[in-house]
Amino acid sequence: MVRRTPKGNFDGEQETIGDALITHHFVEAPGAVIPIRWHYVENDKKDGETILFLHGNPESWHSWEPQIEHFGSRYHIIAPDLKGYGQGDKRPGDWRWENCAEEMLALLDQIGIGNFHIVAHDRGCVLADYLGGNHPERV
Q1: Nearest one of 62, 34, 30, 57 to 126, comparing CA atoms
Q2: Residue 118 in contact with residue 107, Cβ under 8 Å?
Q3: Three-class SS state of 59
Q4: Dist CA 64 CA 54 (whole Å)
Q5: Among 23, 37, 110, 130, which is disulfide-ready with 101 (CB 3.0 to 4.6 Å)?
Q6: pTM, whole model, 2 decimals?
Q7: Sequential DSSP letters for 68-122
């Protein structure tokens, strides 16, 4: 696999990863202190079960390209840049783990995601633990 240098993206920009067509999105969702501006990618398979990919440190959504390529034809994929990483929001605010998980859930609510599977590693695992522990009916 050839790694490419991440670049700035714009809302609605599309690219392909294997057979998966992904779209870049920038949206604001409620935050504990101020609204959070999120960047995430989503594939074009909206009718399948959703997998939320939560990356580690110091990464971005790019770390999930092999998984997006593999699962993108069967699942609806959401791969955000976590708060403070990639093209995600880096402004001051409440950076406690539990709050960051709640802000991630607010993003999912904002974009209309109900139930979802989580695949995570490193820093993303902490958010996954909070999401699964506090919202088992969704995960």
Answers
A1: 57
A2: no
A3: coil
A4: 9
A5: 130
A6: 0.93
A7: HHHHTTTSEEEEEPPTTSTTS--SSS---HHHHHHHHHHHHHHTT--S-EEEE-T
Element (H, E) at 126: helix 123-134
Tokens of 100: 């960051």
Residue count of the chain, please give it.
139
What does the block give as tokens for 90? 């880096």
Asked if 127 and 54 touch (Cβ cutoff 8 Å), the reply is yes
pLDDT at position 6, please?
A: 55
Kindly state the DSSP code that residue 137 receives in the 8-state scheme: T
Place of tokens 């992904």: 22
pLDDT at position 4: 55
Q: Which of 24, 119, 126 is nearest to 81 (CA)?
A: 24
Q: What is the pLDDT along the chain (139 residues), one digit of tens a residue?
A: 455 555 689 999 999 999 899 999 999 999 988 999 999 999 999 888 999 999 999 999 999 999 999 999 999 999 999 999 999 999 988 999 999 999 999 999 999 999 999 999 999 999 999 999 999 999 9
Q: Say if residues 95 and 103 touch (Cβ distance below 8 Å).
A: no
